[in-house]
């Protein structure tokens, strides 16, 4: 006698492009479709009637039990996104290894199966969203890179003026609210126009990049170092009194001027003038802090350059 033909619904469950399995309250498997067989390597005959944890001891037992129990108790659907938990089962995926994921990324739904108004079992679906997750990660990385580029000076690679002023505004607001210390340094390269005129703009650009690298190596991680425009640079020093900021100014000045810049065999001597200012009562806004540091910088220029001056 021929075996009965499978129903249309059975065929759909078997051949649908996502995983379907059913668990009772004791976590025993009641149904296991073809997707689950193909990706786990275990057939329905091997898992049905057994605890899901006996066949897959690596499953997150506490999390999965809690998820299923909430469906049994409340009789409502539950959902788990790959963004919350990247996967339930450690299934291989068919995406390039360059995608940066070890296992198939999965969305899971938990649906109550009712009988006489009681939840008799829970149907779990497992959807392969590896492609979506990789695309989203790549998009987020691209956006992050664009944001980083938007915050960076194209020539030197340090912060640009827009980003620097945004950080200064935030730190100034924090200082107004909580007090403490906050200082800023402005400095530029002395007689930079002469460097451009004598050696050309290509050499001038090389000098700017070299100076930015030298200073970047001596500032703290919590400080913000940026190019303010042309040959002028700025350094934001949170939690730093003016006296200490001027010690940093001298360190920067010496770092810049301790040796010439070698550009294609040409030694270009460089010095810098530095102006410093600190937040204090009576300074109405962060822009005023910039103006005070700028005034101190020009005072250093008038006094002969290659020196540091504090606004007092």
Automatic annotation (TrEMBL):
GO CC, alphabetical: plasma membrane
Sample GO molecular function, one term: diguanylate cyclase activity
Catalytic activity: 2 GTP = 3',3'-c-di-GMP + 2 diphosphate
EC identifiers of the protein: 2.7.7.65
SMART domains given in the database record: GGDEF, PAS
Domain PAS positions: 12-56
Transmembrane annotation, as ranges: none
Domain GGDEF: 180-312
Pfam family, one: GGDEF
A GO BP annotation: regulation of DNA-templated transcription
PANTHER family membership: DIGUANYLATE CYCLASE DGCM-RELATED (PTHR45138:SF9), REGULATORY COMPONENTS OF SENSORY TRANSDUCTION SYSTEM (PTHR45138)
Protein name, entry field: diguanylate cyclase
């Amino acid at each position: 006698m021929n075996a009965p033909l499978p129903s249309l619904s059975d065929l759909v469950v078997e051949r649908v492009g996502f995983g379907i399995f059913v668990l009772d309250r004791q976590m025993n498997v009641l149904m296991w479709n073809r997707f689950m067989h193909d990706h786990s390597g275990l057939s329905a005959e091997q898992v049905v009637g057994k605890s899901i944890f006996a066949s897959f001891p690596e499953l997150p037992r506490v999390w999965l039990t809690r998820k299923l129990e909430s469906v049994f108790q409340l009789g409502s659907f539950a959902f788990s996104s790959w963004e919350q938990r990247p996967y339930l089962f450690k299934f291989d995926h068919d995406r390039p290894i360059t995608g940066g994921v070890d296992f198939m990324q999965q969305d899971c739904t938990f649906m109550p199966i009712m009988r006489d108004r009681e939840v008799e079992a829970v149907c779990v679906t497992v959807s392969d969203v590896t492609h979506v997750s990789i695309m989203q990660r790549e998009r987020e990385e691209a956006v992050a890179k664009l944001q980083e580029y938007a915050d960076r000076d194209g020539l030197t690679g340090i912060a640009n003026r827009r980003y620097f002023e945004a950080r200064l505004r935030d730190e100034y607001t924090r200082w107004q609210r909580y007090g403490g210390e906050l200082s800023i340094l402005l400095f530029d390269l002395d007689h930079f126009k002469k460097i451009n005129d004598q050696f050309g703009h290509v050499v001038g650009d090389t000098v700017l990049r070299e100076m930015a690298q030298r200073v970047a190596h001596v500032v703290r991680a919590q400080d913000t170092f940026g190019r303010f425009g042309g040959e002028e640079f700025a350094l934001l020093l949170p939690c730093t009194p003016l006296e200490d900021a001027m010690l940093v100014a001298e360190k920067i000045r010496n770092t810049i001027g301790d040796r010439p810049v070698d550009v294609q065999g040409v030694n270009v001597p460089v010095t810098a003038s530095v102006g410093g200012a600190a937040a204090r009562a009576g300074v109405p806004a962060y822009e005023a802090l910039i103006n005070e540091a700028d005034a101190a910088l020009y005072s250093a220029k008038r006094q002969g350059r290659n020196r540091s001056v504090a606004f007092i």
